[in-house]
Amino acid sequence: MKDVNKNLLWRIVSALVLAPPLVLAVIWKDPTAVAIIVHVAAFIALLEFYWIVLRDDPIWIRITGGCVGVTVSVMMYWLPKRPDALMALLIFATLVSAILFLIRLSDVRSAATSMALMVFGVIYVPVLLTCLALIKRMPDGGFWVLMILTITFGSDTGAYAAGRAFGKRKLYPSVSPGKTVEGAIGGLLTAFGCAVLAKFWYLPRLSWADVVFISIPGGALGQIGDLVESMIKRAYGVKDSGRIIPGHGGLLDRIDALLFVSAHVYLYARYVVYGWGA
User: Fold this and answer.
1) Phi and psi at residue 230, in whole multiples of 5°?
2) Is residue 239 exposed (0-12), middle (13-18) or buried (19+ Cβ within 10 Å)?
C-alpha cells in the first residue's frame, strides 16, 4: 500500500511540473514552443524505443539513430512546404541506418533486423509526433492541439474507468491482459464526447461529420497506439520504456496513443477540414 501511495504521489508531482509548460505552449499563439517540445520529446521517446529494441547494439548506434530521428522531425517542420520533403527525409534515415549497420556488420541477420527497426523507429516516433507541431501552425492550431490532447487522454481515462466498472471480455489478452472490450467502447464514447465539447466550446467550425470522423477513428487509433507499444515491450520483456517521468515510466509510455491520434487529426484537418491537399 505504501508503494502504491508513493507512486501516486510521484504521478501527481510529475503532472504538476510538466503540465504548466505544456499548457502555456498550447495557448501561446506562436507555434514555436510546441515545435520545440515536440522535437525534444521525439528525441527522448525515440531513444527509449531504441533502448527496448536495439539494446544489444552499442549505445552510439542508438544515439546516432536518435539524432537522425530528431533531424527528420526538425526538417519536417522547418523545411519549406514541398510534397517530396518527407520522402527525402525517410530516404535519408534509411541510408544512414544502412551505413551504420554496414560499418558494424558482425552478423548479417541481426544487422538487417536492427536496420529495419531503426528506420521503423524514425517513422513510429518522430514522423508521427511531428504532426502535433504541424497542426499547431494551422488556423486555430492551439485549439486543434487541445482537442488532440483531450481525445487522447480522455479516451484513455474513459477506457480505464469503463473497464474497471463494466469490463468482462478481454480485448487482447496476449498483449495487454488488463484491457477489455467494454473499456474500449468506453474510450470511444469518451473520445466522441471530447470532440462534441470541442465543437461547442472552441472549434465551432466542425460539422457533426467532422466530430464523428475525428473522434471515433481517433479514439480507436489511440487504443491501437497503446496496444502497439505494449506489444513491443512484451516482445522484448520490458515493463516500462524508461524512467524519465517519476510515477509514469518512460516518455514513450505516455505518448504512445498520442502518436497515432496526432497523425490522424492532422491529416483530417489538412485534407478535409481546410482542403490543403498536396
Assistant:
1) -60, -40
2) exposed
135 touches 265 (CB < 8 A) = yes
Mean pLDDT of the chain: 86
CB 64 within 8 A of CB 100: yes
Give CA separation, 198 vs 25, 47, 157, 166, 274, in Å: 19, 34, 17, 27, 17
CA angle 258, 261, 263 (to 5 degrees): 105
Q: What's the whole-number mean pLDDT along residues 233-240?
A: 91
Burial class (CB in 10 A: 0-12, 13-18, 19+), 20: exposed
Q: How distant is the alpha carbon of residue 154 from its chain centre? A: 15
Q: Encode pLDDT of 8-55 as tens digits.
A: 455 555 555 666 677 777 777 889 999 999 999 999 999 999 999 998
- Phi then psi dihedrals of residue 237, to 5 deg: 65, 40
Which tops the pLDDT comparison, 225 or 79?
225
Q: Where are the beta strands (DSSP E) in the chain?
A: 170-172, 176-180
If one counts every other C-beta atom within 10 angstroms of the C-beta of residue 2, the result is: 6
- To 5 degrees, how large is the angle CA 166–CA 210–CA 79? 110
Question: Is the predicted pLDDT of residue 248 greater than 80, yes or no?
Answer: no
Q: Could you read off the pLDDT of 130-158 as tens digits, one per residue?
A: 999 999 999 999 999 999 999 998 998 89
Q: Are 90 and 122 in contact (CB under 8 A)?
A: yes
